[in-house]
Amino acid sequence: MRACSLAAAFLAAFVPLAAGAEPLDLARYMPVAEVQRGMTGVGKTTLEGTDIVEFQVRVLAVLKNSAPKRDLIVVRCSGAGLEESGIVAGMSGSPVYIGGRLIGAVAYAFQWSKIPLAGVQPIEQMLEVTDQQPWAARRSPRLTAAPAADAAWAEAPAAAIAVPEAALAGPAAAIAVPVAALGLADLPAAPAGRDAFDLQPIQTPVMVSGFAPRALARLREGLAPWGLVPVMGGGFDPSRPVKAKLEPGAPLTVCLLRGDVEATGMGTITEVAGDRLYGFGHAMFGFGEADYPLMTGVGHVVVPSLMRSFRIGAPVAEIGRLAWDEQTAIFGRLTKDRAAMMPVSVQIAGPSKGAVRSYRYEVIRHPRMTPMLAGGAVGNSIVVQSDLPRDHTVSYRVSVKPEGRRQIVRENLAVSPDADGYVENQVRAMLVLLMDNPYGRVAVESVQVEAVVEPESRLAEIQEVRPLRTAVRPGMAVPVELRIRPWRAEPRWMRVDVPVPADYPDGTYRATLCGADEALRSEMRDAPARFRPENVESLLEVLALGERRDQLFIRLERPGQGLAIGRDELPNLPPTMRTVLSESARCQVSAVAQPRVTRRTVPYVLQGSGDVTITVDRHAPDP
Predict the structure, then answer these.
(1) Alpha-carbon separation of residue 583 from 208, 403, 576 (angstroms)
(2) In this structure, is residue 526 part of a structural domain?
(3) Cβ neighbourhood burial of 461 (10 Å; 0-12, 13-18, 19+)
């Protein structure tokens, strides 16, 4: 009795309860201070179906301060086939009991261990997780008393972010949202084999259904940094009812994406107390506050592996909301209130004749996860019916609707070899800059995508540019020939006219003829301030920029030079004024070039560029 009362007092110091919350029966739990080497007990989990099975555990060690102010219990497991499979991905959260009292959840493992060793997350560290004590209330005085620093940051120049080329246009290989825009740490590559020496959180299998192999490969790469591993698991068959259990040891799934494809992270329930549910024993993402659908699940089969065995399963029924996600546990509420999801709709036509294919999805709302999942669903829609033809062009229209703001529309072309990845990354880049920018997160109401697949590539390379004459009077045009090579075709010549404005003074000027990708890169070099938003409104303006890729751009140098102060451009400044402004103390003064740009619609997506030199001479002979 005295031991139970001490345990209750100890746990009470760790576990805050919200007003009106049902009190926990603390006598059911054993604090880590009571756990000793050599103790034995049982664990509960579900490997196949919905039957909860028991396995045996023996305590090998208690690792004090294995993480700051956190302990970890190391146990050896046996039974339930674990001697053959080792610790199974999907077991995260499996409760462990000693003397009938819950000590914690299986949550960690060694990747290459020859025996089933597990790290058990102590139960008091899991019970600390609650949606009633958000991080904002836990800040130290230093963090809560820094309005001056916040104000200084708010007033700092907005030169830290430039909208990436991927958000506007560019070759598929260049579409990569920069680390600064994502807000993610730049993760260095781990030395080979390092993980073999560390107890790592057990990877969370993500059951996916409806994904094509190439889309699944991109999703796997995107989820890997979070310890999530997509597994082709299939969905739940409603024609075969399953009585999924809602108790410790039963499967627990968190829905990330649902609709015509599904993606759900799978672990195990550790504890249910009233409307509170604890699971996993480690973070899913570790983002803190969450609002994702929480579901029961069913196990299909355990796949033994030398590297890491894993459980294949499926979600069954929605039971509430994941409300908080920390390093020691995920915490959910059993409620009829449903998590808010973002709708994504996609329509695909071609490449063969037939009806337009429509797909509908719902994605969790989070500034880091939503772009990846929504983009993945869109890219998958393009290839899920059949792989793209070897040579292809995809005409697409992406419409992103921010809440309470005008719709942002992007219409353009993507070409072989990976047009599906190109469109996917366009969606990702737009959502990243809306939902995770330095000025204010913008809630996105919905995403709509329409695409038409053509069974031929419209890619062409500019190989040579030559003027048919070099000297013209102002107001005339210079005839220029371009040698282009369409994809898998013989080179051909095109003729275009380069117009020279009537106000150009005599002199020599360079004209660059290029495709949309090179034109955009040149514009970002010539006028960088144009792509540095200062607030949400100017960010939306920049996102509305972009050029059709089926155009030829003629960029003719303009006489004189200009400056930009912030995003305000001052072209053709007198030399004296330019010098004064350039040497001023203004920190947002930058050079800006404003060439005369002429566009010509062409049947190709042009890559490459070429330059010609034009002499403007008011005494030049007639053509």
Answers:
(1) 58, 43, 11
(2) yes
(3) middle
Pairing between β-strand 40-46 and β-strand 95-98 as defined by DSSP bridges: antiparallel
List Cβ neighbours of 514 (8 Å cut-off, separation of 6 or more).
Answer: 462, 522, 552, 553, 555, 606, 608, 609, 610
Closest CA to 266 of 392, 93, 117: 93
- Give the model confidence (pLDDT) of 521-570 as tens digits: 888 887 777 788 888 888 888 888 788 999 999 999 887 555 555 555 55
- Provide the residue type at 369 as one letter: M
**Residue position matching structure tokens 């003729």:** 495
Which residue has tokens 């039963």?
Answer: 250
Kindly write down the DSSP assignment for every residue of 261-299, as one continuous string: SEEEEEEEEEEEETTEEEESSS-SS--EEEEEEEEEEEE
User: Are 324 and 371 in the same domain?
Assistant: no
Q: What is the 3-state secondary structure (H, E, C) of 41-88?
A: EEEEEECCECCEEEEEEEEEEEEEEEECCEEEEEEEEECCCHHHHCCC
**Among the three residues 321, 338, 355, which one is the final residue of a domain in this structure?**
338
DSSP state of 137: G
**pLDDT at 551 (0 to 100):** 96
Q: Which residues of the chain have pLDDT under 70?
A: 1-22, 133-197, 234-240, 353-354, 560-593
Whether residues 246 and 332 fall in one domain: yes
The SS3 call for residue 446 is: strand
Number of C-alpha atoms within 13 angstroms, CB side, residue 368? 16
- Give pTM, 2 decimals: 0.81
Alpha-carbon span 290 to 425, nearest angstrom: 25
| DSSP secondary structure letter of residue 173 | G
Count other Cβ atoms within 10 Å, centred on residue 221. Answer: 11
Instruction: Give the tokens for residue 388.
Output: 């793209």
List, in order, residues 6 or more apart from 241 with CB less than 8 Å away: none
Residues 31 and 80 in one domain: yes
- The per-residue pLDDT for 135 is 41
pLDDT in tens, 337-353: 999 999 999 999 988 76
Which of 439, 454, 469 corresponds to the end of one domain? 454
Q: Is 436 helix (H, G, I), strand (E, B) or coil?
A: coil
461 forms beta bridges with 485, 607
User: Which pLDDT belongs to residue 294?
Assistant: 96
Residue 392 CA to residue 554 CA, distance in Å, equals 27
Structural domains of the chain, count: 4
> Which domain range does residue 266 map to?
199-338
User: For 457-503, what is the HEC assignment?
Assistant: CCEEEEEEEEECCCEECCCCEEEEEEEEEECCCCCEEEEEEEECCCC
Cα(92)–Cα(109) distance, integer angstroms: 10
Q: At what angle do helices 213-223 and 419-435 cross, to 10 degrees?
A: 30
Inside any domain, residue 394: yes
CA distances (Å), origin 327, targets 68, 200, 331 = 11, 12, 11
In contact, 608 and 503? CB cutoff 8 Å: no
